[in-house]
Write a structure and sequence with these properties.
By secondary structure, this protein is an alpha/beta fold. The protein contains 3 helices and 3 strands, in the order H-E-H-E-E-H. The model has no long low-confidence stretch (mean pLDDT about 85).
């Protein structure tokens, strides 16, 4: 499905879960991928680190890592403005 979206020249891919994020990442190295929510995105290899993710994947994560809940709240406040 990700490859089909890319053939249609979409501006970005919104991926709802880890399997969809992984499929989208395999399909493209340039189109932006927005994670609706990911579990352990660093361990899954979606990006390098929370501080400096790099690449073309962004979005929300569910993580027990220190500081992540605060960062998610910070981002939600920004979006609400």
């Amino acid at each position: 499905m990700a490859a089909d979206l890319l053939r249609r020249d979409v501006a970005l891919i919104v991926a709802p879960n880890n399997p969809a994020i992984a499929a989208a990442k395999r399909a493209t190295s340039t189109a932006p991928i927005v994670m609706a929510i990911a579990v352990d995105p660093i361990g899954q290899g979606f990006f390098a680190s929370f501080a400096r993710p790099g690449g073309h994947v962004t979005g929300l994560t569910w993580s027990e890592a220190p500081g992540i809940a605060g960062k998610n709240i910070e981002l939600l406040k920004e979006v609400a403005r």
